[in-house]
Design goal:
Elements lengths: L14 H15 L5 H17 L4 H13 L10 H20 L3
Helix pairs in contact: 1-2, 2-4, 3-4
């Protein structure tokens, strides 16, 4: 069996926006950001994802990939806390993606 090759035609966020999503996710996990700031950044990234042609499910996968790439050292390492925070971030992604439609 061959590993699945990434779709070269799949829309993706620019690296700068991925870094921004990672930075806000890390700050959120470390409880160093307000809910309003989290929502502002994640909603903005979600709208950019829609504008660049990403499907909603691709955005969700990207959000989860960014989240799971975060180091757990010194951050909220309790599984239930991490899961709850990821759910909130994904919810904001979805709401931001479908806003203004």
């Amino acid at each position: 069996m061959h590993p699945q090759q990434p779709d070269a035609h799949r829309a993706r966020l620019p690296d700068e926006r991925l870094r921004e999503l990672g930075a806000i996710a890390r700050s959120y996990l470390a409880e160093q950001v307000t809910d309003a700031e989290l929502e502002r950044v994640v909603t903005s990234v979600s709208r950019d994802a829609r504008a660049c042609g990403m499907k909603a499910e691709e955005l969700i996968v990207t959000c989860k990939e960014v989240w799971h790439s975060l180091p757990s050292d010194g951050l909220a390492t309790e599984r239930s806390t991490r899961a709850r925070k990821l759910e909130r971030m994904v919810k904001i992604c979805i709401e931001g993606y479908f806003a203004d439609r």
